Amino acid sequence: MISRLNRYGEVISQEPELGYFLDGEFGPILARVLERSRSKIAICLGGSAETINDESRTLSPSDFVFHNALRRPDGGLTFLDFEYFGWDDPVKTISDFLHHPAMMLTKNQRSRFLTGAVDVYGESIVARLDALYPLWGLKWCLIMLNEYLGSEAERRQFAGIDVKSFRLDQLEKARGLLKSIGERLDASSLEGLIL
Q1: What confidence score (pLDDT) does residue 25 get?
Q2: Residues 102, 66: contact at Cβ < 8 Å?
Q3: What are the boundaries of each domain within the chain?
Q4: Which of 13, 57, 92, 177 has the least CB density, counted as fewest CB within 10 Å?
């Protein structure tokens, strides 16, 4: 997360809105999330920050969202875009799916997905998900701000998109996700944190 944050250091002098967001809004929430996550992960991993064992990992498409699946005429599904496919922590897979900005899930859909994920991966992931879910959300806030980095701007300009407007739209999306994370940090249950 810190290395991702440092990438924006070069552009904030030219983008005051981004600088204000990162320092004045993102920074304080990041501090709260880190404190919360450290205390919860210490409990669920017994103080160990080691990675999960191989048996606890899952195959993950990593970028699986609805726009990467097509329904065939026979009703079956075809999955696209397996560029980031590999072994991963189910907590990351669940968090990525729920935080992805292209997912416009209702509370009921989020609840069904969460329930199904716990059914598949077992109750043992609940404590880790509670500890790490907000961190993955902060990562998604930063991913949405990739538009402020040079290569993304060049792609948008080539496509004829107004880069300044697009950046501000992404900043507002990141601000919305950050606000949601901040409001839910004190939730007393996993459902309150996620739903």
Answers
A1: 97
A2: yes
A3: 2-194
A4: 13
| Beta-carbon-side half-sphere exposure of residue 155 (alpha carbons within 13 Å) | 9
Q: For the domain with range 2-194, which CATH number is right: 2.30.30, 1.10.3470, 3.90.1200, 3.30.1330?
A: 3.90.1200
* Contact criterion met (CB below 8 Å) for 63 and 81: yes
Q: According to the model, what pLDDT value does residue 150 have?
A: 75
- 184: its two tokens: 């839910």
Model confidence, pTM: 0.83
Span 154-159, average pLDDT: 85
Two structure tokens written together for 88: 């991963």
